[in-house]
Every structure is written in structure tokens, then in C-alpha cells.
Amino acid sequence: MIKIIFPDGNTKEYPRGTTAYQIAESISPRLAQEVLAATVNGKVTDLNLPINEDAEIKLHKWEDEEARKTFWHTSSHLLAEALEELYPGIKFGIGPSIENGFYYDVDSPTPILETDLPKIEAKMTELARTKSELIRREVSKAEAMQTYTDKGDQYKTELIGDLEDGTITFYSNGNFTDLCRGPHLPNVGYIKAIKLTSIAGAYWRGNEKNKMLTRIYGITFPKKSMLDEYLHMVEEAKKRDHRKIGKELELFMFSNRVGQGLPLWLPKGAALRERLENFLRNVQKQHGYLQVITPHIGSKELYVTSGHYAKYGKDSFQPIRTPDENEEFLLKPMNCPHHCEIYRAKPRSYKELPVRLAEFGTVYRYEQSGELHGLTRVRGFTQDDAHIFCRPDQLKDEFKKVIDIVLYIFKTLSFENFTAQISLRDPENREKYIGSDENWEKAESAIIEATQEKGLNTTVEYGEAAFYGPKLDFMVKDALGRKWQLGTIQVDYNLPERFDLSYTGADDKPHRPIMIHRAPFGSMERFVAVLLEHTAGKLPLWLSPEQAVILPISEKFNEYASEVANKLNIADVRTQIDDRNEKIGRKIRDNEIKRIPFLLIVGEKEQAEGKVSVRIQGEGDQGAMTVEEFVTFVQGKVAKEIG
Q: Which pLDDT score is estimated for 549?
């Protein structure tokens, strides 16, 4: 017998070789129908894999990320099976699950087009109805290599070459066999609703020197109603696309002459950014931050010292060379090395710490052109960056204070659905990171303890840490339930060592400070993009580029409209006039499309009484108010929004 420990701490004995599915069945038949995968001793596995030793187990239903990943991974194999039947001689690259669905990279002798997707979907549906089992088989490296050499599949043989003998498995479903470590569903019959969403080109293993493969994206669900709901959400997402809204509201643009991935902020967008920056500056001022400004470039040696050049140099913009052959500069990829230099510009005492340096610093990273996407993936972006240099006894309190800032920002901007992801080192690949095990363990413990004391809803992700330290990433869900990574807080013992930073302690000896990196917005570009999509462009009143527009019923009232607009703008209510020679109904419709919060209608009655008729976006008529009453009304709403 073996002991099985459940998440609630209960223990039960089962015969050796019992599967997770059988354990689910012993609890309830309904659970067995709903469970899709299991975590056994910390590893996600097939439901049908025998358990031969005492184990901690967690059963995963669709609501769990582990279940969805398993479902979509199996779906990629179903796609591959369909493609192999439809396109003889096709070769397969990789087919992973992704955040929403899956893809498979293939090399087909016959081109696969968007118009072919319905045919492939139909074949997948036909194969799913066979309910063929996913059969796992361990193979030697020699057998695996021979299998794909015989097929002439250079992609799989290349992958096998990187694997260790004794760790290789095949999975078969129907007539299709694939190199895969799993896990998978028990059979393909679980897949009830299928939608192939798009086709794209993808270089093999992400290297532009390799062959371009065809990448087919798809998504599947255990119920048709879930697919229908997802497709509805996709349509809503198109309406909320920040690129579309940004164009409609005249916030930002891109120009090929300026360069791909380099946004140009238009006047209304620049004003929006300025309000966000001033909001955070005021918060930071209350928390003792000191504002600094650093150059857009730095000596290559600066980034060699920090470790950024070794880590990112190949993927950055190429060095800038000057007439002096001994000089090389880089476009700034990070603000932290510059802030380290500011800290070490003078001797520091333990009494001065913590030192909190903040900057809205623009950085540059060379993203592949195919990865660029509006404001969410750009080559030049501004981080709301700050670095806190503190003593070890101050670390946890400082970390918790940063959490407080992030939570205040999220509350103010109505990001209420989020989790805090604790991003730790990959325990099996520590050579990716710099610094001692001792310092890493201290940093990881500080983050875990701080989140526990703040009562945050957390998840742990191994392998997601920065190369110099662990971090806390805030994963925010927007109004459509999509997940975005926004704010981040990182603990760093390593850059202070690399830059030889110190302070004089109470014992009159030098000590090493600890560094906290933090960016509550993440980047101004990405944050604005997410905010636009979250609100569908109906921004909070205090952020709206235009808070009110005055609509004269006819040109006879344009002069009165100008008087009202002047009074409102003096009172800091951002106001425009729509004095086009159009009917009032047309003006109302056009300005509601622009998502302007208040429409102020003025005609003979309003002019005679010194008032405006107020219409609120999405709420309709609110009656007439004097200009003074309207100003007080707006100020009250703004005060409520920003607490």
C-alpha cells in the first residue's frame, strides 16, 4: 500500500500502482468526470500514470491552470494527428500549450492556408470522437533518433540530440506518435469544441537564420458553450484593442520613418501620460522617494559591470561607436546601473538608509519585428522605475511599503482582480543566475514572508526570476478576464556587489546595502495599453483627455459656449466645444463615440438661465446645472476616484 496525502492534509492508503484517475473515482464519480490532470509530488502528470510510492496529490479541474495546459497540450497532438492525415509527408516542430490555447509549428510539403482551417477543424472533430487514448512509452535515445531519422524529420532529431538518454518518452494517439514528455488527457474524447484561430510564420527555434515554419494556432474546450463564450470575448477584445482606441482618441501613433516599435505620443496621449506620472510622483513624494534623471545612453563598461551586457548584449541595439576608438556606448536597456552610480557618488551612513531613487526612465531593447504589438511590445519604453538601497533589517518593511503603493494604484484604477506571482529561481538550472545561493535564499525568503504578512493572493513560479534576483510580479486580470503582468518588485543582493556599493554601519565598518527594484506601472506604454483595453477607452474622469464637450444647439449660442468653456478650463475641467454646423443628435452620437465623459448642451434656455444641460456618457440626461454646480460635481467625482 502507499499513502496519498491530499491538499487539505488528509491521508488515505491505496494499492501501489493506483492512478490519479482511480483516486478521483474513489472520491466521487463526478470528480472523476471533471478532473483533467494531477500534480503528484510537485509534478503535473497524466491521470493514468501509476503511482508507486507515497505521494502528495492535487487533482486539477478546468479551473486550474495545470488542467488547461494539459488539455491544450493534448489538443496540439490532436491537431498534429489531423495534419498528418491531411498532408502526407508533413514534418513537425514543437506544439506547446500557451496562455489561451496551443499551436504547432509544421513544415508542410503543401502550403497550409487560412482557408484550410475549417477542413482541419473538421478532421480534428472526427478524430476526437474516436476517443483514442494517449499512450505513453519510454524509449531509448537511439530508438527515438532512429524513428525520426527514418522519417527524415530533421526537427525532431535535432530536439532529441539535446535530450539525455533515459528521459525520453513518446505519446501515441490514434495513428499519430510524437516525441513528448507530457502530461496529457486520458483520451482525445475530452475535447468537445475546437477552433483554429490563425496561421503565422515562425522561424524554427526562434532563429531567423533557420527555415520559416507554418505555425497554426488554436483553442479547444470541454464544452461548446465555453467556446461560444470565448469567441464572444475575442470579439469584445477586438472592440477594446488599444491600437484602435488609441487612434480614435488621438493618443499615440507609429511611423515607419521614425522606426518600428517606437511610439509617438500625440498631445492628448502625452497629457494622459503626464497625469499618470504626476499621480505616481505625488505618491512617491509621500513615501520619501527622490527624483533623478539619467541619460538615454551609457558606456558599454557600465552594462558589463552590471551583467546586463553578458545577459542581453546580443539581443540589444548594437553599440554606438564614437570617433574615439576606445569609446563604446549602448542605448540604455535598464535604469538600475545608472542609479547604482548615483548611490555610490558619495559616502553613505547607515543613518541615511533607505535611499529611494525614482525616475521615469526611457529604455531601449531590440525586440524582433514580428514580436512588436502596439504599446504592449515596443523597442523604446518608459519605466516608472525606482531603486531602494536599504539595510538588511529594513528589507522586509521596505518591500511591504512598495506592495502598499502597488495596491493603492490598482485600487485607484479599478484593477481589482489580480494575483501576486512569486518568481523564483529554476532549481534545476542555477547557472542562469548570478550571485551566491545564500543571498538568493535570503531574498526569496524576504519576498515570501512579506507577501504572507500582507495577506496577498499568491502563486509561485520557478524559473521566472530575473537573472540577478527573485521578484514579485503582479498579474492583473482585465474586464474581459485576460491576464497581464503589470507591476513588479525585485530583491537584489547582486548589483550592490558588482558595483561595490557600501554604507558605514553603526560599528563604523563598511556594509553592503540590499537593492529593491520596483515599477508599479511596469512601463507607461504597457500600462496605458492595458488601461485602455480594461476600460474600453472610457477612462476614469481624472485621466480623460477631454472631460467635457460643449454642444451648442445652433451657431447662435457659440459665443455663450465659449464663455462656459473658458470658465470650465480655468476651473481645471478639460473642455472643448463642438461648434460644427450639425444637428444636436449627430453631435451627441459623435462625441459619445469619442468616449467624452460629459456632454454639455447649450441653447436659448441654458443661455438665459446661465446653465448647461448635462448628459453623462452611458447614463443619459442629468438635468441642468450652473457652471459652478457642474465644476463642483466634476471635482467631487475626481476626488472620489483618486481617494
A: 96
